[in-house]
Specification:
Pfam families: BPD_transp_1
Structural class: mainly alpha
Main location: membrane
Low-confidence stretches: none
Membrane topology: Multi-pass membrane protein
Family: Belongs to the binding-protein-dependent transport system permease family.
Shape: elongated
Helix content: over 70%
Protein name: ABC transporter permease
Number of strands: 0
Radius of gyration: 22 Å
Distance between the termini: 36 Å
Order of helices and strands: HHHHHHHHHHH
Mean pLDDT: 86
Strand content: under 5%
Length: about 250
């Protein structure tokens, strides 16, 4: 009984259980959707499996977030070094511009060049995820106290060692918060990638909207919502582990 209570109290575990039930058990809910939406001839989206759509959705979000972490993190580190300080304003402007442009506009511009598929969506989501990662990388590194850097230099550390062994570990919680924001935003935004041919959980939503089929919309939306809860809870767990690791260190 205590084990069941602990599972129900764990947001990550509970979210994963609900997500698995929705993704794998959606076909079993067809009679329910038929009752709720009696006027629909097809109350369940069956063109693709929800498991395949979920995996494709996560792959797109993961790839775009990773690309944003690599590009935004490298750029954020560069502008906090003496050699890149003069480009700080340019970086802020570019990152803000990427966040300002609607993803739909980026998709529309990318399609004539890259064609239909996941490539335009990958570019749009990467640009959309840059701003929080750049801002938090810069803020995290700039929050490291100068006396800590001086102490590291006094121990004979070079610039690279100070960055890897002192600055990045201390800035990690702030950087992680930026990655979390980018990932959660990209998770929701990825749904519109289906407008350019990418297979995501936005596919049943878009088909449902175009075909006046609210059941499809609900089916896609509840899984995206469950994914968002699981992702957010996962970052909570990761942040707690990071805090404990820093405390032990």
């Amino acid at each position: 009984m205590n084990g069941i209570r602990s599972v129900m109290a764990d947001r990550l575990v509970l979210g994963l259980l609900i997500l698995a039930a929705l993704v794998l058990g959606m076909p079993a809910l067809k009679p329910l959707f038929a009752v709720v939406f009696p006027t629909l001839d097809r109350p369940l989206y069956e063109a693709d499996s929800f498991l395949a759509l979920t995996l494709d959705h996560l792959a797109l979000v993961g790839a775009s977030t990773l690309a944003a972490v690599v590009l935004g993190g490298a750029a954020g580190i560069a502008v906090t070094r003496p050699f890149g300080a003069e480009f700080r304003g340019v970086l802020d402007a570019v990152a803000a511009m990427g966040q300002t442009f609607p993803p739909v506009a980026v998709l529309a511009v990318s399609v004539p060049v890259l064609g239909f598929g996941p490539a335009p969506a990958l570019i749009a989501l990467t640009l959309y995820g840059l701003l929080p990662i750049v801002e938090n990388t810069v803020a995290g590194l700039e929050s490291v106290p100068e006396p800590v850097r001086e102490a590291a230099r006094g121990m004979g550390m070079g610039a690279g060692d100070i960055l890897l062994r002192v600055e990045l570990p201390l800035a990690a919680p702030v950087i992680l918060a930026g990655v979390r924001t980018a990932a959660v935003v990209n998770l929701g935004t990825a749904a519109i990638a289906s407008t350019v041919g990418a297979k995501t959980l936005g596919l049943p939503i878009i088909i449902g909207l175009n075909g006046s089929n609210p059941a499809y919309v609900v089916q896609g939306a509840v899984i995206v919502a469950a994914l968002a809860v699981v992702l957010d809870a996962g970052f909570d767990r990761l942040a707690a582990l990071l805090t404990r690791w820093r405390g032990a260190a």
